[in-house]
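Sequence, structure tokens passed on for absentees:
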Amino acid sequence: MICATPVQPSARRSARRGGAAVLALVLAGAAWGGAGTASAQVWSPVWTASPAPDRKDGTPEAPVQFAGQTVRQDMRLGASARALRLRVSNELGDAPLRVADMRLGLLGDAGATPVLFDGRSEVVIPVGSVLISDPVAVEAPAFAQVSVSLSFPEPTRPAVRRTVVRIGQGETAPGDEVALDYRQNVISAVYGERETQPTVVVAFGDSITEGATSTLGAERDWPSVLARRFEATCPGRFVVLNQGISGNKLLDHGRSHSALARLDRDILALPQVDYVILLEGINDIRHGGDPAKPGRNAADMVQGYRQLVARLHDHGIKAVAGTLTPFKGSERYDAPSSEARRSLNAFIRDGGAFDAVVDFDAAVRDSADPEIFRAGAARDDLLHPNDEGYRLMAEAVDLSLFGCDAR
């Protein structure tokens, strides 16, 4: 459930959107060849994955992620589109990123279209940079899957969060018979050309938002289930983007930059964001593997929440907070972290800092012991939801808060 009155983008937000739409129209018109040719109305993000440092997931025999291989990534688009552009990230890479022979097509369709960058099929992306591709004309309905393959001719350490991929040797794109893997890649966003601008909702958090413990390739993380709810109730009007990273923290760096540190790159740099649903804090407040090293206290966390909200509001983005889910029985649970979670949830619900609240805690906790997940809703680690837990979380979101009312 969500507790708040409906919120809408501000007048300043609307003005910013109008200006961005005009700019998108001019840029897209140039990309398509200028006057007298097809031109975009708006470009909107329709899929995302946050940049994240190399996790060193390669095997001892292959200490880099990819080398002399072709990687295929299938992505479910959050909205319909008539053309697509890919955002390829080397923002957190430690060496120039060489990408070659990238191709895109609707999953299941014969053939794929080359993805070019200013007309080039092979590019080298400097450290700290991104490249956005030329538009690729493709008629994609909402929730269509697009398949992107790209070759890594040199040893490469991608620096975008883990996603579901298939990996083939050499220059041939792997087929469906190749098993799914969960690895880092280089595509951080897909932009879709549309006639109308959807309302963009970004889920911002850690592994519970990323969906790291949902069924691999089944899109049962709570942002994906929420996206389906929006589409069923208000077709074509909403996009839900997932900017979760496993292990992420609100205040401190860990496996990735903190939420406060990555806010500009992962939220504010995206075009046309209207709402952020924030679910961060579990990794901050748990002890660091030793009870003698306690996690962050509630006062530090509250300050961090207020800072994040202020920065979102500066950009006309509404801040919706999710209460922290239970984790009693998990390996880093202790009395101080339990107390911090209760204090933070009280602040989230009643502190008035956020534009609205999603009570994820109430949706998944056990009625007899609110410190643990209800039966059948968590993985064995008692920290992460399973598919059923993610479904309960998505069902807890009141769509009317975002202007989507069932009729």
